[in-house]
């Protein structure tokens, strides 16, 4: 088993989960409680990675982060290294690709909070940010945990996006999914089978944990 790829995948999954748990909370709260008509458009954009082929999403992210793009040129001027085909670029792509897995369970959990509690908090003089932190989040622990678990697991198994944006650089962008692909390409089926088995067991544990959390509380899946 390629332990360097395993370590890189875990590092990528942890950082992606931490970033999304910060970014997704205000976005999910706005989507859950906003009454603007164009909220549905934002929801569709957030959910786009669920239906868009990973290679297509990876291509557009690669173009956006490439050396000829404004973001890519700015990053090179700032750090002296390219953003594409690097771990930082891989992290950005993973955050974008896993965004709906963090936002949608949160939205469903926030919607399930009793509106009377929110109104009571407002009457008591709490700001909206304080209401979210002190009322909504404590009552949405199951949704938050589900979002974190799904985001982490989804990042571990990423292939198309990470291959397009990060390539296959050992110790830098080669994740565990790409390592399995390399083993198959080299006809090393024993290594591929061993690594795939560990990923299969990991996926079963994650799904069991997710469904177990959902069965203990209200639904944490997206609104229809």
Overview of this structure, please?
- This protein has 224 residues and is mostly helical.
- The chain has a single domain (3-216), classed as MetI-like fold.
- The chain is 76% helix and 0% strand.
- Helix 10 (176-185) runs antiparallel to helix 11.
- The model is unreliable at 218-224 (pLDDT under 50).
Q: Could you tell me the radius of gyration in angstroms?
A: 19 Å
Q: Strand-and-helix sequence, N→C?
A: HHHHHHHHHHH
Tell me the domain tally. 1
Amino- and carboxy-terminal Cα gap? 41 Å
Structural class: mainly alpha
Largest sheet: number of strands, sense, barrel closure: none
Overall residue-averaged pLDDT value: 86
CATH superfamily: MetI-like
What is the level 1 CATH name?
Answer: Mainly Alpha
Beta-strand content estimate = under 5%
Gross morphology is globular
Q: What percent of the residues sit in helical stretches (DSSP H or I)?
A: over 70%
Let me know the number of strands: 0
CATH topology assignment: MetI-like fold
Number of helices: 11
- What is the level-2 CATH architecture name? Orthogonal Bundle
